[in-house]
Amino acid sequence: MTTERETRYWGVRLGEGGKYVEHAKKGKYIAIGWNRLGNLEQLISKERSFDDAWSKLYDKYKPIYGGSEVSVGIHIGVIMNFIRVMKEDDIVVVPDMARGRALLGRVTGSYEYSDNWGDGCSYRHRRNVEWIVKEVSRDDIPPKLKASLNVGLTVFSLERPKQEIMLLIGGGRLPEGAKEVTKTGDELAEVIISRLLNLDPEKFEHFIKDLLTLVGFEATVTQYISDRGVDVIGTLNPEGLANITLKAQVKRVSGQIGNQDVLMLRGTLGTDEHGVLITTGRFTKQAQTEAEAEGKKPIALIDREALIDLILEHYDELDESYRQLLSLSKREVPLRERFYTTLMTR
Q: Cα-atom radius of gyration of the chain, to the nearest Å?
């Protein structure tokens, strides 16, 4: 049984200052640079996992363009969004603020590459689009959408202002082929976990580090590879009373974590150090028993449900890049519906 994929909303920049917007408008396409990477069609194969494709792209990108690990991770994420995550029928907004406008379209084709397209645009990685609204004046772009278009990325999520985009397309009606699906409760949890699983392992560790920082720890990620079972180390000093050291092992998996991981993490702990296992999956009963074993140093366990609750609790404080990845929206609950009272009745 297949689940119908929800429509996603993207922003795509076409050159500095909208250099190639007019080319894309006439040719009905969107495009990105990084030409020296060559044809990336082999990375979109269904037989190749997302993690494997990410790793292969990293191996191509790093020697050519260099940069810090964070910078490389961001750029690879942008490219992967364009060539693989973006799908047909997704909606794109192309800002052209230099000319006071934006274009709105629907993706109609998969990733394509050519060494020479022959149309004056130097960007070689492309996707075909159908322009739904060829031009929207700057003055007609809703403030929430306009603010979202200021993100300094080539390809970026526009899930947060999607209602405003829908209004621009057609008075609040979805375009043909698009379907709006709202996820809450357990379905929302599945979406959050799915999007976290799309992160490469190292970037996921940085996400957990940033999340622990929001909780109150001064956290750092250990050297990737050969980290001896510890991915993140955090220090908490409440009111300057005492230093609490927390060592975290991060598991970005969809399955279960067993007691071996509990034993491994416990083996890294010093006398006054604490340990926590954080996973997008779940823990076996054996792992839970071992973590709380009498006479042994306890290990805190944060499974997918606890992780989701932690993310939702601190969602507004997350970095913008993480909020774009998760693309969650809050429902405004009327003030009088936030409170209740209990009356005795017969």
A: 23
Give the fold, CATH level 3, of 195-326. Trna Endonuclease; Chain: A, domain 1 (3.40.1350)
| Mean pLDDT, 10 residues at a time, the chain of 346 residues | 68 90 94 95 88 91 89 89 93 90 93 93 95 85 84 85 83 50 84 86 88 86 60 74 82 92 92 91 95 93 95 88 79 75 77
Complete DSSP assignment for 251-274: E--SSEE-HHHHHHHHTT--TTEE
Q: CA-CA distance, 133 to 138, in Å (whole number)? A: 13
- Token couple for 225: 């590879």
Burial of 115 (0-12, 13-18, 19+ CB in 10 A): exposed
> Cα 50 from chain centroid?
13
Q: Which fold has domain 9-170?
A: ph1033 like fold (3.10.590)
Q: Which one, of 102, 112, 107, lies nearest residue 90 by Cα?
A: 107
Contact by Cβ (8 Å): 207, 197: no
How far is residue 151 from each of residues 29, 126, 154, 158, 316, measured CA to CA in Å? 21, 21, 9, 10, 17
**Domain extents in the chain:** 9-170, 195-326
Residues 6+ apart with CB under 8 A from 119: 23, 26, 27
Residue 199: DSSP 8-state? S
Count other Cβ atoms within 10 Å, centred on residue 147: 12
